Amino acid sequence: MKNVILGISGSIAAYKAIELAKLLINANYNINIVLSKSATDFISPLTLKSLFPKKVFLAEGTLDDHDQMLHISLAKQAGLILIAPCSANMIANLSNGSAPCLLTSLCLATKAKTVLAPAMNVVMWENLIVQANIKKLKERGMLIIPPSSGKQACGDNGVGRMPEPHNILEYIASIDFVSYHTLKGKKAIVTAGPTHEKIDPVRFISNCSSGKMGYNLAKAAQMLGATVTLISGPTSLNPPENMELIRVNSAQEMFEAAHRKAANCDIFISAAAVADYKPKSISIEKIKKGADFSLKLEKNPDIIYEIKSQFPHIFCLGFAAETTNHLEYGYQKLKAKNLDAIAINDVSKGKVFNEDYNELTVITKNGTEFVIEKNPKLEVAFKLLCTLLK
Ligand SMILES: Cc1cc2nc3c(=O)[nH]c(=O)nc-3n(C[C@H](O)[C@H](O)[C@H](O)COP(=O)(O)O)c2cc1C
Q1: Contact at 8 Å (CB) between 59 and 36?
Q2: Number of domains making up the chain
Q3: 204, 207, 260, 206: which is closest to 231 by C-alpha?
Q4: What pLDDT, in 10s, does the model give residues 45-79?
Q5: What average pLDDT does the structure give for the chain?
Q6: Which residue has a Cα nearest atom 2 of ligand 1?
Q7: From 6, 66, 106, 250, which residue has the greatest number of CB atoms within 10 Å?
Q8: Where residue 177 falls among pLDDT bands split at 50, 70, 90?
Q9: The CATH number of the domain where 254 resides is what?
Q10: By CB neighbour count within 10 A (0-12 exposed, 13-18 middle, 19+ buried), where does 312 fall?
Q11: Which GO terms describe its molecular function (predicted)?
Q12: Which residues line ligand 1 (CB under 6 A)?
């Protein structure tokens, strides 16, 4: 678990820090929150202290319960400092090495990586002094999450908005991986979610897949530099930004989309829970209730098998969801489909489906086995890709 200091400075975006703090905790980070003096004009310390007891420190904080100097003890504990939102004034203080409050002091006293999420009016953001300060901070090794563009609190339109908390979380989760690994220049296809196999106009056969693992794999591959096409079965997830998304319903449609895209791709990740079978015929009319009823099923195309057979150069990573004999079935599937690697989910007792966390057992084609411990799915995705594609 990583210790993160979440610094909040005086910006109208300070209210978003509550959601960010919750997301960080949910993603297994141990957080302490440090407010600048003016941050308390935007967000109440009482609210923060009620939501995050014993984790909130104010600007004038100097000593903790054990009489330790807070700016030093917090700075030493920190694995990462994230200031979100980061005001123009905070940026200026940091670039000057000024330390008027606890947050600025501990930024000077730490060896931890510091990440800033600037948030301000578009004209302030474009101001040459602000940009010069940003340049200086980047040169000193601080990481800047680019502000997003859009309608601002003051009514202006342009760059300067703090990115959404989930985007900041993704950035934080990627830091350790993105600096050391790259998929730049690679093209990846990721399949995700369940498929719907129609029975009649109102009914279908499907499964419990939420698509979360596949969407996180697509996101991680993209953040590592790959150009990603996500082929998604029906899910309720938000579409990833700046990524080609092909929505499909059935296994046949997923197969056709994958086949269309595969020729010039380098990596194929099959995280979708593709239905093995589909009804042999689809009733045009809604089937009426009557006596006992049985469905005749036929096999769906085996998408990853077909892709690997036709395009042997593609690195193919399959997924297996098993309730028993995980390794044995994993090895069988790896061999039968001639995969480069397989990641096995233990889905016994309802685990994995729709959860935000996952753990995987992975087998590669040369027989190496490794386990990725339980973590948020984005982190699991980074670990999986970085281990297999280093
Ligand atoms: C209503 C209001 C909204 C503000 N919003 C921002 C903002 O979004 N970004 C920013 O850099 N400054 C903003 N400011 C100015 C900062 O709050 C001011 O520079 C303050 O001194 C920042 O202090 P700090 O960096 O120590 O938190 C705003 C001021 C007011 C009164």
Answers
A1: yes
A2: 2
A3: 260
A4: 999 999 999 999 998 877 776 767 899 999 999 99
A5: 94
A6: 12
A7: 106
A8: confident
A9: 3.40.50.10300
A10: exposed
A11: FMN binding; metal ion binding; phosphopantothenate--cysteine ligase activity; phosphopantothenoylcysteine decarboxylase activity
A12: 9-13, 36-39, 87-90, 119-120, 124
